[in-house]
Amino acid sequence: MHSTMQTWILKTTGQNSTCSILLGEQVLESLPEIWPKDCGRAALIGDDEVMALFGDRIRRALSSCAGQVLSLGFPAGEKSKRREMKAKLEDQLLAAGFDRQACIVALGGGVSLDLAGFVAATFKRGLASIYIPTSLLAQVDAAIGGKTGINTEAGKNLIGAFHMPRAVLIDPSLTLSLPTAEWQNGLAEMVKHAVIGDAALFSAMERLALDLRQPTRISPEMMRSSLEVKIALVREDFLEQGARAWLNLGHTVGHGLEGASGYRMAHGLAVALGLFVESRIAAFRGLMSAAEAERIEDLLKALGFDLELPFDLDRISPHMKADKKNRDGAIHMVLPVGIGRMGRPRDGGYSYAVTEDEIREAWPA
Ligand SMILES: NC(=O)c1ccc[n+]([C@@H]2O[C@H](COP(=O)([O-])OP(=O)(O)OC[C@H]3O[C@@H](n4cnc5c(N)ncnc54)[C@H](O)[C@@H]3O)[C@@H](O)[C@H]2O)c1
Ligand SMILES: [Zn+2]
Fold first, then answer.
1. pLDDT at 32 over 80
2. Once rounded to an integer, what is the mean pLDDT over residues 312-322?
3. Which of 222, 248, 268, 305 could form a disulfide with 185 if both were Cys (CB 3.0 to 4.6 A apart)?
4. Where are the domains of the chain?
5. Closest ligand relative to 163 C-alpha
6. Does the Cβ of 157 fall within 6 Å of ligand 1?
7. Number of Cβ atoms within 10 Å of the Cβ of 176
8. Rounded distance, CA 112 to CA 148, Å?
9. What span, in angstroms and rounded, lies between the C-alpha atoms of 362 and 279?
10. What is the reported pTM?
11. Thinking of the domain 6-177, which architecture would CATH place it in?
12. How far is the CA of 189 from the centre of ligand 2 (A)?
């Protein structure tokens, strides 16, 4: 292994599998080392944009491991994350005679990983997979934790499976070609990770906020810190029955905003606004200080997020009421008790029941 490379092994309890997560700019050179010994063929699956950008390079790297590489592209964008696209990919694999001695190599952002990962989860009852995330959001978030799935008319990510890839190869230099809007989506999740579990990462982001606004080389230390927050929670609670729910910070209000916008609002902005409102709720409740909530607001603004709320609460609450964390008709959300620390309510759970009046009180005028 290259000396500047970070490696984590993620073992899951529910599934009898381990996943190696490798971080570093030479990470693609490790493909032969982590290649599943039982796999002769590879299917490289990614959207057309990332295939055009990185396909040749990945195929070259794969040529030393897999006897044969089949490349399957699909149109970029969230609308490809649907049943019909999964079926089409599966039919292509079947037509090419793929059996269980094959590995799915998923290349791209969260859409490519969720879709190709779901194909891997169910093709012939489960194939090995390797993820090569190329968006910042995929590198720090979607690639970690084994959740795969697709959207339906009824909602996002409603059909899917937990299926751990054998390995995740994270080369931070791949994200330099991202459009700024996509970069911002990943930044919001990094702020979320910092608030959940790493005050030092939060401070580092404050110091570097202006540089971080556009795609830039994020230091390996900051990437590692962000990854470690998610890895620790997935390790503790793979099937999301407890602490993994903390990763929903900012997303209760965020999903409400996305729903109210007809899913036209960028996910990163929705999460940024969600972090802003939810930390104010935590401050109004006395869980965290008003000064800490203000630091969160200031960091988000410094990173370039416009925290002007585009809808009032009445437009958003019907969507928040549909959230899967809710119990007994009450809106539930996870809340921080400080920067880098999450709270647990007295009932021993992980999310707090929050009334609409409380949300209204915290809603910025
Ligand atoms: N499985 C999970 O745990 C998990 C977690 C978070 C999000 N997600 C899912 O991830 C999806 C969002 O992922 P995303 O934001 O990466 O979107 P995406 O996959 O659509 O990628 C965004 C755009 O950037 C392009 N792109 C990707 N890498 C690039 C690069 N290096 N240079 C230039 N362009 C590049 C893509 O082609 C695409 O057009 C959502 O569907 C969400 O549900 C899953
Ligand atoms: Zn998110």
1. yes
2. 88
3. 268
4. 6-177, 180-362
5. 1
6. yes
7. 11
8. 10
9. 9
10. 0.97
11. 3-Layer(aba) Sandwich (3.40)
12. 6
